[in-house]
Amino acid sequence: MYQGRYKSILCQEDNYLLELVRYIHLNPLRANIVKDMKGLKEYKWSGHSVIMGQNSLEWQSTGDVLEYFGKMKSDAVRKYEEFVAEAKGMAKREDLTGGGLIRSAGGWKEVLSLRQSKEKWMADERILGDGDFVSTVLKQADDHMSRKEKLKKEGWDIGRLVSEVCDLLSVDKKEIKRESRRSKLSQARGLIAYWGNKELGISGAELAKYFEITRSSISSAINRGRKIACENEYRIF
User: Fold this and answer.
1) Contact 77, 66 (CB under 8 A)
2) Tens digit of pLDDT for each residue in 125-183?
3) 3-class SS at 179?
């Protein structure tokens, strides 16, 4: 049903997002894994069933999609289902598989002349939007990568991050891996997860392994850390 490894795609506008959601959620039907929309609604390996309320996944948010279809959940779910069903006969669309840059540049030859390395091109495929949007995102990504490299050269790693955060919140770093509901310890773990991921580029899998917790738990910790950092205006870098 899917080709290549999992990837997330950054969308420019709401219309890109909704078309992409619809396209992806119709994959099981397009691949003949399910026979019809009823089968798609019950298919537990697709996010569509979660939005329809047939299944639940703790890491999948449905509100962000349903809010485009109405304020009342029941009405929004019905309109969302109608929206998806309208495209059930849709064939594969290259413009919804990370082709924003291809479309705006005018084709593969032009793209190849713009991007030299395969690694760079793979990053382009994660962006769906017009040429200006793609270029802006790539520049921001380059700047962010430069910042990560600078921090690494300055000696920042998970060990130093743990020490700095524990000092900031007056937490004993020897306890940082211990499960606890203590507010300060929980905040420290969240900040380490958030800054480790955002500023140092440490993957969720690596952070989960460090803290010896699940990936879904580390995702929650990252979100918690983001909120804590913003609300308290914490800075350590």
Assistant:
1) yes
2) 445 455 565 566 656 666 666 777 888 888 999 999 999 999 999 999 999 988 776 78
3) coil
Same domain, 136 and 169: no
Distance CA 42, CA 20 (A): 20
Within-domain flag for 131: yes
136 with 203, same domain: the answer is: no
Give 208-216's long-range contacts (Cβ < 8 A, gap of 24+): 210/158, 210/177, 211/177, 212/177, 216/58, 216/59
CA distance 196 to 206: 10
The answer to whether residue 220 is domain-embedded is yes
Number of domains present in the structure of the chain: 3
Distance CA 26, CA 44 (A): 13
The tokens for 128 are 């769906």
**Token pair recorded at residue 231:** 């609300």
**Residue 130 belongs to domain spanning:** 98-153
Token pair for residue 140? 């921001």
